[in-house]
Amino acid sequence: MHSKTEHRPVVLAIGGHDPGGGAGIQADIEAIGANGCHPATAITCLTVQDSCNVSQLIPLAAEHLTAQCKAVLDDCSVSAIKIGLLGSSQAADGVIRLLRASPQIPVILDPVLAAGGGSELVSEQLLDKIREELLPLCRLITPNTVEAARLSAGGSSAGLDRHAEILLQLGCGSVLITGTHDESDPNRVINRLYRADKQTMIRQYPRLPGEYHGSGCTLAAALAASIGRGQSLENATQTALDYSWNCLQKGYRTGRCQSIPNRWFETLSNNSR
Ligand code: PLP
């Protein structure tokens, strides 16, 4: 019998499938569920990858992607949409059309441009589309420092404040630039939230050793869930950064290269049965 009393906001995650379960849709499902929402999913592309790198990206036809999104949007009251790897500029076109038709739903974009192992995951055409047409539809985007420099085309010497300013001018509501890729401080990771009204929030965490696969997905999905549950942008950012840091700190290895964030660290631990 289903419970009519428990309210679970629905978060729609749009992204690619990683068969290793580190990044992409599986990361989204785990992080959205762990943060109190129901994950609905639409697959943009399949990938062939292991914990080291992505070797193949297989986009789904755009019409099949939009049909998945429409099935969820027409049936459920969706509280937030999280977007990760888009896979093709045709997929982006379809998603952009749907977002324009549902302007009331907050959109959180993790601008996935390259795999942790280095493989390029966007074409120049898709990058332009994200910059010019998708960013203006987003409540929040969560680039790392490398993605912020590429997306803003501001040049790596321009500095993070300038990159954020350019991204805000492109039309997104706010920008959270994560600091894991900025290794200028060996002990700390500094994350910066920029808002259109220029207020900023800075949160620092101890830098953890090693590399993790799906940390960006985890953060953006946790943010979408927290925003979907009605938290303010600042509270959602705090919740999602704390959650993601804990996932990484309690992460584990399944393969030869990058570790997997432990997105279920608050459920049964491996040894507690
Ligand atoms: N989504 C998919 C399907 C991916 O393959 C990747 C990276 O390879 C990502 C998202 C982004 O992963 P991360 O969160 O490690 O940046």
UniProtKB/TrEMBL annotation:
Pfam families: Phos_pyr_kin. It comes from the Bacteria. Pathway: Cofactor biosynthesis; thiamine diphosphate biosynthesis. One of its GO terms (cellular component) is cytosol. GO terms for biological process: thiamine biosynthetic process; thiamine diphosphate biosynthetic process. Keywords: Kinase, Transferase. GO terms for molecular function: hydroxymethylpyrimidine kinase activity; phosphomethylpyrimidine kinase activity. This is hydroxymethylpyrimidine kinase.
